[in-house]
Amino acid sequence: MPYISRNPATEEVVEEFNAHTRSQVEDALALSFEAAAKWRATSFAERGRLMLKAAELLEQENTEVATLLTTEMGKTLASAKGEANKCSTTMRYYSSHAEAMLQEELIDSSASRSGVRYEPLGAVFAVMPWNFALWQVIRFAAPTLMAGNVGVLKHASNVPRAAKYLEGLFLRAGFPEGCFINLFVDHDDVSFIIGDDRIAAVTLTGSEGVGRTIAKTAGENLKKCVLELGGSDAFIVGASADLAYTIPMAVTARIQNNGQSCIAAKRFIVVRERADEFVDAFVAGMAAAIVGDPMDEKTVVGPLANAAQRDLIAQQVEKSVAQGATLRCGGVLPVGKGFYYPPTVLTDVPEDSPAGCEELFGPVAVVHVVSDLNEAIAVANSTPWGLGGSIWARDSREIDQAIAGVEAGMVFANAIVASSPELPFGGIKASGYGRELSTMGIREFTNAKTFYVA
Ligand code: NAP
């Protein structure tokens, strides 16, 4: 299977890469196993020095790498620059905080000395998606490498230039060969790699279906596994919401990254007493977002990443409308080159329509009007997923009720759900398990070794 970089705005192929052969995969696994043995013995100071160097390179190359991201997956240049910045900030964060996060802990017991040490596991295999082609990888790699593990990457097949850039970045920063390897491999090779004894653990950021496949293979091979999967986050508008602030945030929460974010707000659940004020203004905000060339600084929504994504979202909307949903804006495929889809709002969505029960990975919002906050929380919890969710309210009782009641890995109040290096990131239910980032995240790929000295 070739790895093809195609510009979603022009549909032109920019570059193509052949998949690695099985013997190249074998060589890479041998190299990473060797590197893991040496890397685990390096000091935090040395690892931190190299991570900082990689962060500096990324900062110097911000515009160049942002252009690469935009022409490879269609996000706007401004958001691509922001993504690259977030990566370098996170690399800096782990370069200086990893040692404290993995400090040996003493625990009182019947021993004269006992506690827990956090030791690296070895080579961690990462299967990653295209939507934040740099960030998803760095979110895994910065803490994982700082913990003394090495990384093997299988990136999505439509972002090979981002994958190559990342491999080169770590090498140019001075990381020893084998510390971070990129492989262009087929789906069959993914199972093969997970099953290989030289791989200690696996992490996937991707869809629920692939999560089930990878979890099964990891389970059969008794490998530690972290899964960051899809979601259909609720954006709850409470009775006390400040709508002048909330409505523009609602629009951004749905259309950022051209609507292709796991933690994008996808379902807008509004209490009836605020529905008239919210819905019309939200629809107007969505309809006003400028769609166009992602390199143009005026553009807010660029093309979707590929034809398959665009066709899927178009079909989901079309079927939902055929089943009775009301189309409030958007919903019409533009003609011409590029995988564009307009910001779209649906109301009165039947539960069994695609918009009522599937993840919408594009700029399409579903609005539900409910009687009160109790019902809003019940609707928020009525999906198989549990990634994030947000409550928009001035009243702290409403905020606390939603934080306690929403079944998700992350609940934000008066802020768009986002990841940051200090806080745990991850979901429950069909959104996966395990955590990335924070002390919890960096410890996922460590052996929490208990020691006991009598
Ligand atoms: P995807 O189809 O699951 O792909 C993710 C990765 O899995 C890619 O590298 C893909 O490689 C690989 N893959 C696909 N099928 C495979 C198989 N049968 N065996 C082994 N590997 C396989 O997901 P996507 O469409 O790229 O990304 C969108 C999904 O990811 C959405 O559901 C979104 O919510 C979720 N996501 C979650 C998070 C989070 O943090 N929770 C973040 C971002 C995205 P190929 O490209 O070669 O197929």
Set out the fold topology.
Blueprint: E1 3-6, E2 13-17, H1 22-39, H2 44-60, H3 62-73, H4 77-101, E3 105-106, E4 113-120, E5 123-127, H5 135-146, E6 150-154, H6 160-173, E7 180-182, H7 187-195, E8 199-205, H8 208-220, E9 224-228, E10 233-237, H9 243-255, E11 265-271, H10 272-288, H11 307-322, E12 326-329, E13 344-347, H12 354-357, E14 364-370, H13 373-380, E15 385-386, E16 388-392, H14 396-405, E17 410-413, E18 428-429, E19 432-433, H15 438-444, E20 446-453
The structure holds NADP nicotinamide-adenine-dinucleotide phosphate (NAP).
Summarize the model shown.
With 454 residues, this protein is an alpha/beta fold.
Account of the 3D structure:
With 454 residues, the protein is α/β, with parallel strands linked by helices. The protein has two domains: 3-229 and 431-453, Aldehyde Dehydrogenase, Chain A, domain 1 (3-Layer(aba) Sandwich), CATH 3.40.605; 233-413, Aldehyde Dehydrogenase, Chain A, domain 2 (3-Layer(aba) Sandwich), CATH 3.40.309.10. Helix content is 43%, strand content 21%. The chain has helices spanning 22-39, 44-60, 62-73, 77-101, 135-146, 160-173, 187-195, 208-220, 243-255, 272-288, 307-322, 354-357, 373-380, 396-405, 438-444, and strands spanning 3-6, 13-17, 105-106, 113-120, 123-127, 150-154, 180-182, 199-205, 224-228, 233-237, 265-271, 326-329, 344-347, 364-370, 385-386, 388-392, 410-413, 428-429, 432-433, 446-453. Strands 12-13-14-11-10-16-17 form a seven-stranded mixed beta sheet, sandwiched between helices. α2 (44-60) crosses α6, α4 packs parallel to α5 and α7 (187-195) runs parallel beside α8 (208-220). The chain starts with a strand and ends with a strand. The relative contact order is 0.14. The model has no long low-confidence stretch (mean pLDDT 98).
